[in-house]
Design a protein that fits this description.
single chain, 406 residues, mainly alpha, hpI Integrase, Chain A, three-stranded antiparallel beta sheet, 49% helix, 12% strand
Length: 406
């Protein structure tokens, strides 16, 4: 059943259809006067749940988790969360939660069932982060069910994530590899300047950008004079519409970062090359457009946007090209540890080795918490150890000379 939201003058109204009456016509439940769309949505969802408890239409004793999840996504998530977050929820639900629990009646899902589900994911060696995300999604869904009077309590509230330390579990953890300068030069030799992969690779290695950020950089964010790049968006794939769309960076980590002289010159040459190509192709040069919802959609009216990552004819070069790059790097170049994220980790490691303050690195990388940066800094490398040893020697050498130890 669909809850419709309509604006009536300056206020909002919700409405939904009830069961058929004795004449065979469906009743219509509606109420207006709400100041915001969100308020009307919440009131409509609550009214819908209360109506459902009568057993006339949406029988809570029989509704499955799959059915309620659809209701939750439409009536709460899409109205209160970023689109990228909703898409991530739907992906996790599709691959993990619904195959295991979707067929079960909502009222039959208790803490024991959910604990077993989380335990099985842990035993399958999924990462701690994945377990946290799955628990968060289920908890959010059941909390919504409680607010709508569909459930009396949230069964997820007493579920615990197993401790790998205490139970001997080996949870999956994506290894963070450092790409050596020699390996990176080998990669660039295969994808040299002028190829669509070259600049995104440089963004990952020299700036530590996430892949969605690297492919969302536009020329208006590049400041050649001050030698900075503004990272204010990322690009994400919408499976439903089969389109790429722009949103804020992960954790809303908008930032302006300094770039080295080498990257400045690389970008300057790329800009000049694009301007020449635009003149050469004329009317056949592609103009990328973003519609009102943030979708990169050249088939719909929108506003033009100049991406740094484009093909020779101006077509947008999306993150999907990195799948081809990774395949070549893994099998042809024999660098199996390469991922785009490995470039980001490499950049963070280089910052640590250079002695860059942790707070600066956190802001540059767009980490939500400094603890994320500390985890990288805590993995000391041979260079850091050697530098520390030299510092220790210098600290005590003079004192040792005085004391006659040396």
């Amino acid at each position: 059943m669909e809850i419709r939201l309509e604006k009536r003058g300056k206020t909002w109204q919700y409405s939904f259809e009830g069961t058929k009456n004795e004449l065979g016509k469906r009743t219509r439940i509606a109420k207006g006067g709400y100041k915001t769309k969100s308020a009307a949505s919440e009131a409509g969802a609550k009214a819908y749940a209360e109506y459902s408890e009568t057993g006339l239409q949406f029988e809570t004793n029989h509704v499955t988790l799959r059915e309620f999840v659809d209701f939750w996504i439409e009536q709460y998530c899409k109205l209160n969360l970023k689109k990228s977050a909703v898409d991530n929820y739907k992906k996790r639900l599709r691959y993990h939660i619904l195959p295991a629990l979707g067929h079960m009646r909502l009222t039959a899902i208790n803490a024991a069932v959910l604990q077993k589900f989380i335990n099985e994911k842990a035993q399958a060696q999924y990462s701690h982060n994945t377990l946290v995300v799955l628990k968060g999604i289920l908890s959010g869904c059941f909390n919504f069910a409680v607010t709508q009077n569909v459930l009396k309590y949230n069964p997820m509230s007493s579920v615990k994530i197993p401790s790998a330390r205490n139970n001997g579990l080996r949870l999956r953890k994506a290894p963070n590899h450092v790409i050596s300068p020699e390996a990176f030069e080998k990669i660039l030799a295969r994808f040299p300047e002028g190829t669509t992969a070259y600049i995104p690779l440089q963004f990952g290695y020299r700036c530590g950008m996430r892949v969605g950020e690297a492919f969302a950089v536009t020329w208006d964010c590049v400041d050649f004079e001050n030698k900075t790049i503004k990272i204010d968006k990322q690009v994400t794939w919408d499976e439903t519409k089969s389109l790429w769309y722009l949103s804020k960076p992960k954790y809303d980590s908008e930032r302006i970062i300094a770039i080295d002289d080498g990257l400045v010159e690389i970008l300057r040459r790329a800009r000049e090359s694009q301007l020449r190509a635009k003149e050469y192709y004329g009317d056949n040069y592609s103009t990328n457009e973003v519609d009102a919802e943030g979708y990169i959609n050249n088939d719909q009216p929108g506003h033009p946007i100049e991406f740094v990552s484009v093909r020779e004819n101006g077509d947008y070069a999306a993150p999907r090209i990195m799948q081809h790059v990774a395949s070549i790097v893994h099998y042809d170049l024999n660098i199996p540890e390469f991922t785009f994220h490995s470039l980001r980790h490499t950049h963070a490691t280089m910052l640590a080795e250079a002695g860059v303050p942790i707070k600066y690195a956190q802001e540059r990388l767009g980490h939500k918490e400094v603890e994320m940066t500390l985890r990288i800094y805590s993995h000391t490398t041979q260079k850091i150890n050697e530098d520390s040893r030299q510092i220790l020697n210098q600290m005590y050498q003079k004192q040792d000379n005085i004391d006659g130890i040396i």
